[in-house]
Amino acid sequence: MAASQPQMSRHQLIQGRVFSTAKNIPSSYFSSSTTKLSSKPGASALRSSLGFRSLRPRRILSLNASLPTERRAMVIDKDTPWGERRIAPILMPTCQPDQVLIEVHAASVNALDWFIANIIGKVPPFIRQGPYVPGKDVSGVVVQVGSQVNDFKVGDSVFGMTGFSLSAAAGAVSPEKLASGAYAEYTTLTASEASLVPAGLSHCEAASLPLVLLTAWMALVQTARIQPEAKVLILGGSGGVGTLAIQLAKKYCQAGTVAVTCSADSAELVRSLGADVVIDYKTCKFEEVLKGENYDVVVDAVGYDSKCSRSAEVLDPNKGMLVDLIGPPAIGYLRRSQRADGVVKYAMQLLKYGKLVRYKLVGVAPNGEALRAVAKLVGSGEIKPVIEREFQGLEQVEDAFKLSKSGRAHGKIVIKMK
Q: Which of 175, 187, 251, 302 is most buried by a 10 A CB count?
């Protein structure tokens, strides 16, 4: 009997493993056909008898001229029962001129993934347009390069955000975009929104980063513009966004004090990431512990009730800012138990405390420049991915969703595909 895979311990800070591109490309990718090259003068045909090193020129467009015509994926389509998802073969995506086609080695789970999938799953099957593939975070190996792409080449290990987002729902969404999610054997990434996987980082570690890292970046760097020695309070410090936000605030923004709320069993984890003040939300109210401390920024990553009034107690009255990553309680997908009148209460808080709290509601979008900037810190070990658990393959995505919905995951949940 084969030995079972070792289980990852809870709250483990994953140490990176050196990734060798040559060793992680399946031999099946190499075909007997001649590799396609650029039409630039001087480009010569490379024959399959040459080794892997011969596949280094930038303008190689495909690792194998005979890539499969289908891929397995988690889908919601017209053949999927209402409210469900299934694993099925669908067509391979077309690599557009500004994209790279990757073989997916790992993906991760965000609350946004199952939230959007639940919404689309409740669309009547007979009016669904093409297959929808969930999943935002992805890491894999480039097998095809678009004609306009100069920053990546076949064989590169890359990671980033892909797939459909709610921000696109107001406009026309192409079938290709709907089917470009991470829970598939192959998918596409827009090259300008991707980054090379830092040396020493596994695909699982890389896949755990994009959405939460970019959310923390949007909150702390682009919105709050945290300055050195600033005082930052993160509500929900042990979640996917919180664990990255602590490290980003301390290592990149050089904040003077980082306070967090979390449960008592997460205290050691968040302190190891750089938290200076840890508040057990089950036994203490953060506004009482930090009242009058004049914090510069409060980041709400969990959807606190009365967030405006409570934050006003701890923020600097002259420049303090509340950065909200969740929104009104009634629409915050992490707070399913909230009643519809939560929106009214939320609006009244903004009216009452608007003069005391500078309020910003922040979303997330792909940002290749930010991803590459923080990837350097990850590569140097200054920022560490925090992984709660690894699941194996598409068949375990539903189990990963259940763990995410439970709210008990500390750090990220990842799906190992290869």
A: 187
